[in-house]
UniProtKB/TrEMBL annotation:
Organism in which the protein naturally occurs: Galemys pyrenaicus
Keywords: Cell membrane, G-protein coupled receptor, Membrane, Olfaction, Receptor, Sensory transduction, Transducer, Transmembrane, Transmembrane helix
Domain spans labelled G-protein coupled receptors family 1 profile: 45-297
GO molecular function: G protein-coupled receptor activity; olfactory receptor activity
Principal subcellular localisation of the protein: membrane
Family to which the UniProt record says this protein belongs: Belongs to the G-protein coupled receptor 1 family.
PANTHER family: OLFACTORY RECEPTOR 52I1-RELATED, OLFACTORY RECEPTOR 56B1-RELATED
Superkingdom of origin organism: Eukaryota
Annotated protein name in UniProt: Olfactory receptor
InterPro entries given in the database record: GPCR_Rhodpsn, GPCR_Rhodpsn_7TM, Olfact_rcpt, OR51/52/56-like
Length: 324
């Protein structure tokens, strides 16, 4: 049935308004200060790791290359949302243009898809290094590493392009207020006059497949790694390997648990989980891992720690070139 309303073409809004964290407006100032400190660590820590790996010719193993790419993705992921969050929390100015909202949505969700793929690649790297050390350089050649990074990026683009297209082509009503601190796709899709179910269902299924497959393969890799570690005769070697694996698993847990919880809570926790809790979960998994990754993956790695200290000494006190 065609009525008068069907002859009316709805124009997309010029601007959306992000509210920050609904119900926690009184804490916005403290959140802004905390986010500013964390974002500073993200920029300085990840930039330092990228610089050290780039400048030191001895850090050319696949692990360091993956770590360099992870640092770049962390900067992109945090930079997609944190600067705008800080503005919202400091000044209350949550306005964002229509196009800017969907650009932010695309980059932040694509970056999260790339990040989970990189965590899988790094788990595979550790598996080969510990379980097949004699074949390490033959398996993880530069061509294989490049192919893995390209495949991870293509997978993220293939996942995000249909999702962004579906949400951006929804007809939007008069409401322009996004009950979130960034343009999270479910929060934006809820403003549409049409049902957001197709895009939301696509997002949940796609995220579940991508993250589910990655987590299964990561778990399988670390299961094989632990078997190999407990087969070592040296207690020191066992403790060193367990310490490395434990820190990596900790970072992955901080990334996957809040991320998947935010997706399923938005679907299953309606009316039971407070909205500010849902938004906080979605924010945490975008900010905490990029903040901790330079510490867990970088400074806990002996070679990077040594080269970082050498670089800092050189910059601050005119220390000689980076040592090998």
């Amino acid at each position: 049935m065609v009525g008068p309303a069907d002859n009316h073409t709805m124009e997309p809004p010029d601007t959306f308004f992000l509210v920050g964290i609904p119900g926690l407006q009184s804490s916005h100032l403290w959140l802004a200060i905390t986010l500013t400190a964390m974002y500073t660590i993200v920029l300085l820590g990840n930039s330092l790791i990228m610089t050290v790996i780039w400048m030191d010719s001895t850090l050319r193993e696949p692990m360091y290359c993956f770590l360099c790419v992870l640092a770049a993705v962390d900067i992109v992921m945090a930079s997609s949302v944190v600067p705008k969050m800080v503005v919202i929390f400091f000044s209350g100015d949550g306005s964002i243009s229509y196009n800017g909202c969907f650009i932010q949505m695309y980059f932040v969700h694509a970056a999260t898809a790339v990040e989970t793929g990189l965590l899988l690649a790094m788990a595979f790297d550790r598996y080969v290094a510990i379980c097949k050390p004699l074949h390490y350089n033959r398996i993880l050649t530069p061509q294989v590493m490049l192919g893995m990074c390209v495949a991870i990026t293509i997978r993220a683009v293939i996942f995000m392009t249909p999702l962004s297209w579906m949400v951006s082509h929804l007809p939007f009503c008069d409401s322009k207020v996004v009950l979130h601190s960034y343009c999270e796709h479910i929060a934006v899709a809820k403003l549409a006059c049409a049902s957001p179910m197709p895009s939301s269902l696509y997002s949940m299924i796609g995220s579940s497949i991508i993250v589910g497959c990655d987590v299964v393969f990561i778990a399988a890799s670390y299961n094989l790694i632990l078997r190999a570690v407990f087969g070592l005769s040296s207690k020191n070697a066992q403790l060193k390997a367990l310490s490395t694996c434990g820190s990596h698993v900790g970072v992955m847990a901080l990334y996957y648990l809040p991320g998947m919880a935010s997706i399923y809570v938005a679907w299953l926790g309606k009316g039971t989980v407070p909205l500010h809790t849902q938004v906080l979960l979605a924010d945490l998994y975008l900010v905490i891992p990029p903040t901790l990754n330079p510490i867990i993956y970088g400074l806990r790695t002996k070679q990077i720690r040594q080269q970082t200290l050498s670089l800092l000494m050189r910059c601050l006190f005119g220390h000689p070139n980076l040592s090998s």
